[in-house]
Write the structure tokens for this entry.
Amino acid sequence: MRTLILIIALLELAACGTYAVDRPPQISKRLAPSARAYVSVPPDGKYGRTVYTGSGAMAAQIVATAFARHFDRVEQASEPQTLDLALERAKELKAAYLIAPAILHWEDRASFWSGRSDKAELQIAVVDVTTGKTIEHAVVGGIKGWPVFRNIHPQRLLPRPVGEYVNSLF
């Protein structure tokens, strides 16, 4: 019995995922923590014919939570918007920055049975609301490691790389 528990524990440790932050070195000044930010909601992610309902709202919530640790005030959209509508709403709220996440890849697998890993990848753009220009952007994501007995959904792969990226902006 102890051997079985040890094997399961080792499989769980081996299942730890990897993550990455791909960011061109472009920011010349740090973001102002005293500013207000508006986070848009991207359309739900899809893989093939499968649409992952609610994934856009989950991605926006992860991004908003990471930025809320730094900005005085963060507002999040309640539904997906075009970039133009999000920028307009950010101006109405007198936000200095529009944070616009986009789902590039969202794949939720029954990893243990299929042998395929869950994956999530976001592009995050920081837009200066006054000028409408993107002042910072990156691609962040995670891939679950080895198949395990529990299902780890794509949204659980994002907080660490998103948080690491956001921390680098302040």
Observations:
- The domain at 32-167 is CATH 3.40.50.10610 (Rossmann fold).
- The helical segments are 2-14, 55-68, 83-92, 111-114, 159-167.
